[in-house]
Amino acid sequence: MADGPTINTIAERAGVSIASVSRVLNGLPTRPDTERKVMKAADELGYVRNAVARSLKSRRTHQIAFAMADIGNPVYLAMVRQIQPVLKAAGYRLVLHSTDAVVADEIDVLHSLGERYVDGLIMCPIRVTDDHLKMIAAARAPVVIIGLVPDGTQVDNVRADSRAGVRLAVHHLHSLGRRRIGFLNGPLDTVPGAAREAAYREALDELGLPYEESLVQIGDFYREAGAGAARELLARSPGVDALMCANDLIALGALDVLRASGRRVPEDVAVVGMDDTDLAAASWPTLTSVSLGSAERGRAAAELLLARLEEGDRTPSVVTVEPRLVIRESTGGPA
Amino acid sequence: MADGPTINTIAERAGVSIASVSRVLNGLPTRPDTERKVMKAADELGYVRNAVARSLKSRRTHQIAFAMADIGNPVYLAMVRQIQPVLKAAGYRLVLHSTDAVVADEIDVLHSLGERYVDGLIMCPIRVTDDHLKMIAAARAPVVIIGLVPDGTQVDNVRADSRAGVRLAVHHLHSLGRRRIGFLNGPLDTVPGAAREAAYREALDELGLPYEESLVQIGDFYREAGAGAARELLARSPGVDALMCANDLIALGALDVLRASGRRVPEDVAVVGMDDTDLAAASWPTLTSVSLGSAERGRAAAELLLARLEEGDRTPSVVTVEPRLVIRESTGGPA
DNA sequence: AGCCACACGGTAAACGTTTACAGCGTGGCT
DNA sequence: AGCCACGCTGTAAACGTTTACCGTGTGGCT
């Protein structure tokens, strides 16, 4: 692990100046024999360009950061899986930040852009505070936000349409003849929770179905919480014939409870989840789920950022990814 | 996004030299009023230290790379989830590389260590070739390998004990009274496939059970392949009363087929998977699975690398993580 | 043969830090 | 009062590149 060769070592060995070495390595026009001497020396020494020195001079690190709450969350995982190859193809490395949904950590990441260790940032803020907006406006490198930002914010932005997603699911259940469509949601003080609640009401409205409090149960976005919520809802409204769940984990919890209560899925109760994680395909019965296009959002964000790096003065774009309903056994789809 | 302030800007504004600025920022002894002037100027300018310049001088990037085949694989995901916080706590950033199980890409990553954009590397090679070993020996930064390396290789190494894992599972099935224990494996020319095959034979031997070819079926490490293998095995040996599966996906495929064939799990056939991914807890029935300690391996690798960075001349260590059997419904565990 | 144009190569500065070294001023000592 | 020691500060070099600028040598032209 001794000090590696530098451009100087090569210059010395090849009997040329460091400028020539640099030019050869960068493919600038050189006399053939100079090129040969340099390449020979470089090969013999096993030379590799120092990325740090390069970055210092060129002001490009060829690194991009992705910041999300927790890579264990399948939604973020799906994003990373798309972001990575896009960046790699464009010659960028991926630096991963987990913020554990701590706002201060997110602010930290934004602040650290000033260190210039990355050329840009893709961020999924858990919720967007004024601090976020201030830091984003002042950021020393391009930023793409995945998630809702206040209208008019000057930043490249990719968003899902969870409203349309819930609508898709509720209409699907309605088309199956279900009329007592329960709703298992997460906390209303989260961005997705609030949006999904509103969308559920809206969808019922469109279909001419009444909103009944007894059909709605709020828990949290986890499996246990979903099971608990399902139990309560079933106790209160045993006649429910469909369950719209605010994410797949809630839906899995609901499936557990339905099974335990002796109800058949989908014959007695049809179930729809949300996010279309790989758990949806793995459960039994397999779970119909609304895909909010995490993969597409990841890809779009990466492409937006690359475009911005190419051409810094484009006006910020907003990309909205359409939801998609993936029909599986839990609403009568194929096995 | 104009050029940010540098140490020079601060020096000018504070009326001191850049050396003093640097000293203040690094907490070296300074006269109180110098410190005050510098801090004031730095605050007013919103100064942030340039990480690249710092790295160039200090020869430390405070970045560590993690290279694996595919972060979509729950095993690698579990590792990343442990590695990330350990590195973060130690002040390192995580650079992620997906090699898609392409050997050339792995070699590339090893080669790129010469660029010195990271201080070290944690790698999960899909299989270890001579090229790997050569590059590792010559690597310009510390490397930790997760997975089997030839004995005597001079490199920090973390390994699972899949042999012991299979043994654990087979003994568990035996203790439940099962005597016709089938084995659904992946390809034998992969490192895990070969190891698990050997371990299965060994375990049967210990228990005095005969090795029967008709009870073994080789497919691949995916759900569909697992289903296919299970179908063949059931057709050939309908009397099988337990299935040892070489990973969780194979086991899920087997569960599908068992259900379709009208067999009850675990009453008629008990099933054990391997890797203890979150799919095991999500399936129905929930799946007993052998954890090979991916999380622990990730953590151990990160700690090994940090130790090596502290003290470069330790002799390389080998850490072996013990497997653990997680008993769930598919072998009669609690719901 | 003499001149010019041109292509290539070398010198040196720059990117933004850290740090060795030397210089300077203050305070305490004799 | 003079000297020394010490503590802080400034100058400059270094980390490993890229690149602007200038000099040199070659070839072709008249």
What would your notes on this structure say?
Two copies of one chain form a homodimer. The first copy, chain A, has 335 residues and is of the alpha/beta class. Chain A contains 13 helices and twelve strands. Chain A has helices at 7-14, 18-25, 32-45, 51-58, 74-89, 103-112, 130-138, 162-175, 191-207, 223-236, 248-260, 278-282, 294-310, and strands at residues 63-68, 93-98, 120-123, 143-146, 156-160, 181-185, 216-218, 242-245, 270-274, 288-291, 318-321, 324-326. In chain A, the strands form two sheets. A six-stranded parallel sheet of chain A has the order 2-1-3-4-5-11, sandwiched between helices. A six-stranded mixed sheet of chain A has the order 7-6-8-9-10-12, sandwiched between helices. In chain A, helix 5 runs parallel beside helix 13 (294-310). The first copy, chain A, is elongated. The mean pLDDT of chain A is 95. The interface between A and B is large, with 49 and 49 residues. Chain A binds a DNA duplex (30 and 30 nucleotides) through helix 2 and helix 4.
